[in-house]
Amino acid sequence: MFTIQPVIKWSGSKRSQAAAITQYIPNFNRYYEPFVGGGSIAYAISPDKGLCGDIYEPLINLWRLIQSGYETLLEQYRLHWDRLQNEGYLVFYEIREKYNKNQNPADLFFLSRTCVNGLIRFNKNGEFNNSLHHTRKGIDPMRLKSIMANWSERLQGVEFQSGDYWETTQNVRKGDFVYLDPPYFHTKGRYFGTIDFERFTDYLVWLNKKNVNYALSFDGIRGETDYMIELPKELYKRHLMLSSGNSSFKKVMDKKNETVYESLYLNY
Ligand SMILES: C[S@@+](CC[C@H](N)C(=O)[O-])C[C@H]1O[C@@H](n2cnc3c(N)ncnc32)[C@H](O)[C@@H]1O
């Protein structure tokens, strides 16, 4: 099975489903991923021509550094990481505070690799508020180098742009492909930005009118709990349920493992 070593850890990562999702992706001219987050599907596809976006601008700045300047980023990570090992947990909180003032992408990177379960979470003022993962050291910079080099290489064909999903895909044409992974509608507050259901379904109508193929990860079932949201049937042609192993979010909450199924809607 194809496993992805994450570079940026991000909430809602599709890493565990990437192999299953990419099986359903048809040929395309240009690849679009307007809710890129931790980028696992873009990585798995490694398109020759792609445009990836996210509403969270510091994340896009970080992607640009990974793509083109990972040596500097690695050096900054190494400095923070060494301090964390030598001086202890207060270093994490110092960098978190600094990050919430100046949004330096290298600090965001360090936080994503050292916070509890790599879950990037914001409070209602848009400040990053997860804590240090006390029982883990954060990835050793020596190991990180080859991971960064690999991601950088696989993303060479991708342009990164910050902004709203509709804006990122405004120039899509027939023959292009769009992978959509919006925040779950029930996870308001855990991600940066929220999306409006009606506007989102209007957007799917717009993609259909343009004859653009899309795959949408949208809702799911987690253990006993059903998070399915009714998507109007005329918007898609196929609906698949993919198993995504155990939920790390749930594990954090009550230490139990639950099987998670996430749905994938295809309009082709
Ligand atoms: C479920 S995550 C994507 C995870 C990604 N597929 C991965 O494997 O890591 C959803 C992303 O949508 C972004 N987002 C939220 N509202 C948005 C909007 N209106 N336009 C674009 N991106 C948005 C969030 O910042 C978050 O990174």
Description:
This protein is α/β, with parallel strands linked by helices. It folds into two domains: 15-66 and 157-266, Rossmann fold (3-Layer(aba) Sandwich); 70-150, Adenine-specific Methyltransferase, domain 2, CATH 1.10.1020. It has ten helices and eight strands. The protein has helices spanning 18-22, 40-45, 57-68, 70-87, 90-102, 105-114, 141-154, 165-168, 197-209, 248-254, and strands at 31-33, 50-54, 158-162, 177-180, 213-222, 225-226, 238-246, 259-266. Strands 1, 2, 3, 4, 5, 6, 7 and 8 form an eight-stranded mixed sheet that branches. A hairpin with a 2-residue loop joins strand 5 (213-222) and strand 6. Helix 3 packs across helix 4 and helix 5 packs antiparallel against helix 6. The longest helix is centred in the N-terminal third of the chain and has 18 residues, at 70-87. It is globular. S-adenosylmethionine binds at residues 10, 12-14, 34-35, 37-41, 54-56, 164-165, 181-183, 191-193, 195.
Please render the helix and strand layout as text.
Layout: H1 18-22, E1 31-33, H2 40-45, E2 50-54, H3 57-68, H4 70-87, H5 90-102, H6 105-114, H7 141-154, E3 158-162, H8 165-168, E4 177-180, H9 197-209, E5 213-222, E6 225-226, E7 238-246, H10 248-254, E8 259-266
Parallel strand pairs: 1-2, 1-4, 2-3, 4-5
Antiparallel strand pairs: 5-6, 5-8, 7-8
Helix pairs in contact: 3-4, 3-6, 4-5, 4-6, 4-7, 5-6
